[in-house]
């Protein structure tokens, strides 16, 4: 989604007790800022007990954490492998033309899934380069700011990277400002995304043994027909709890999940631009039973 990930102050949720579940978080393996090890440390320190790392188009953060010699995970913290696929949804009349599908519990060793993600990353890299060229042509060059990045790394480059470079170059006052004026849809640096559609993303996640969850879909109450179509394609879950949702949105999206029989999920969608992890989890409420439901679905192989 865009960068406005927090609910407006008036409707912001105050967790009734410390939140111990976060099934949506990013690291610097995609467009977040923290190293995977720093994210799990911050989550554990904040009292989280179930964390899904859901970087865009890559499982490398999770793989690094469990690699031989990586050291133990913080005690008391379960880490789930996850991914987020920004699926192309042209023609569906959606903001930004995308549906974001989070895959929870995908098998990091699934070869076909990794191949699909690698293709996504390659498309992402090409888009990134085209956007940097468009910014350059518009007099908003950020090549000096990007020079320190290793663009050949296995990272999923994203618009936030360009937005941060625009801030560093003095063209924008914040990442949000950079999105609004330069790299958001219609901006001088914008290039449309290419890649998997929502049905393909859902099938790829199912094929890797994961639970596909539609993320931060606040318009769910008015898009039930679309949700049913996606369920027919294999969609299992709906993000009912998200840091950008106010209480009314949580209630409305939760009612849709109950009506349609979608598994509720939720998380911070933490990236690290605006606040610490502790602050982000402190204003996100994900009930403990959300993790129980997702883990149970993975265990009984609902999605096998
Ligand atoms: Zn998203
Ligand atoms: Zn996300």
Task: Describe the model.
Helices cover 39% and strands 14% of the residues. It is of the alpha/beta class and 304 residues long. It has one domain: Metal-dependent hydrolases (TIM Barrel, Alpha-Beta Barrel), CATH 3.20.20. It has a 7-stranded mixed β-sheet with strand order 1-2-3-4-5-6-7. Helix 5 packs across helix 6 (175-183). The longest helix has 27 residues, at 111-137. Bound molecules: zinc ion (2 copies). One zinc ion binds at residues 24, 26, 84, 269.
Q: How are the elements arranged and paired?
A:
Elements: E1 21-25, H1 36-45, E2 50-53, H2 60-66, E3 78-88, E4 98-104, H3 111-137, H4 143-146, H5 159-168, H6 175-183, H7 198-207, E5 211-214, H8 224-232, E6 237-242, H9 247-260, E7 263-267, H10 277-282, H11 288-299
Parallel strand pairs: 1-2, 2-3, 5-6, 6-7
Antiparallel strand pairs: 3-4, 4-5
Helix pairs in contact: 5-6
List keywords for this structure.
11 helices; 7 strands; TIM Barrel; binds zinc ion; globular; single chain; alpha/beta; seven-stranded mixed sheet; 304 residues
